[in-house]
UniProtKB/TrEMBL annotation:
CDD domains the record matches: 6PGL (cd01400)
Protein name as it appears in the record: 6-phosphogluconolactonase
Metabolic or biological pathway: Carbohydrate degradation; pentose phosphate pathway; D-ribulose 5-phosphate from D-glucose 6-phosphate (oxidative stage): step 2/3
Catalytic activity: 6-phospho-D-glucono-1,5-lactone + H2O = 6-phospho-D-gluconate + H(+)
């Protein structure tokens, strides 16, 4: 399936346009099915998107939100993706959305998998939209090329996997491709010249284990749109 590229003039335009696109998709899901589900990524890129999304007029009480991945830290930790989402997205009217956290407080992500899977099953599936980021090493969600658990996570039929990156901080919990691709639409949200070049490289044939973002870019089941700004 070909990947659609939306190149925006700058990051503010990207955030505004992608927020409007996501809101329209969620509104259509609510109209068709009574509720809608959204999977978002953490990291630095989505901060402006979260703020733009929070300002969208939507019946947020009908929206279910979770993360594509989470660092295994409490929400009081500066690296918590859930805290990022609560601070930048779940504000004002958007606070009415149902947020499902992946972190559950267990000692390790492996110990938290069962309870997180149960929580995750509250989200309507297929997800209406999954927004992925991409790291400079080609990881997406927390599917890191250097992690020992990568091959098993890529092949898993379970929705979640525990992953320990060797080059990034914190053990992680991540949605697997089995869950990420159980969606109506994928978005890859990236910014900067380096990520544009990496996206072009990942669009060339090659192993998903080398550049895990290929799980979204090189598959035939779910439409994938890449949203980029310099
Ligand atoms: O928890 C995380 O770190 C993310 O979900 C991760 O997959 C992120 O999307 C990329 O690492 C890009 O991060 P930046 O946006 O910070 O470059």
């Amino acid at each position: 399936m070909s990947v659609e590229l939306h190149a925006c003039p700058d990051r503010a335009a990207l955030d505004a346009a992608l927020a409007a696109e996501l809101a329209a998709r969620l509104a259509a899901g609510i109209m068709a099915r009574g509720s809608a589900s959204l999977v978002l990524s953490g990291g630095r890129t989505p901060l402006g998107l979260f703020a733009a999304l929070a300002a969208q007029p939507l019946d947020w009480s009908r929206v279910w939100i979770t993360l594509a991945d989470e660092r295994w830290v409490a929400e009081s930790h500066a690296d918590s993706n859930a805290a990022l989402l609560r601070t930048h997205l779940l504000q004002g009217a958007a606070a009415a959305a149902h947020f499902v956290a992946l972190y559950g407080g267990e000692a390790t992500p492996a110990l938290g998998l069962a309870a997180a899977s149960t929580r995750l099953s509250a989200l309507p599936r297929p997800f209406d939209a999954v927004v992925l980021g991409m790291g400079d090493d080609g990881h997406t969600a927390s599917l890191f090329p250097d992690a020992a658990e990568l091959a098993a996570a890529l092949a898993s039929t379970a929705p979640l996997a525990a992953v320990t990156p060797t080059l990034a901080p914190h053990p992680r919990i991540t949605l697997t491709p089995a869950a990420l691709l159980d969606s109506r639409q994928l978005y890859l949200h990236i910014a900067g010249a380096g990520k544009r070049t990496l996206f072009e490289r990942a669009s060339q044939p090659g192993a998903v284990t080398e550049l895990p973002v290929r799980l979204a870019l090189q598959q035939d089941g779910v439409p994938c749109a890449v949203w980029w700004a310099p």
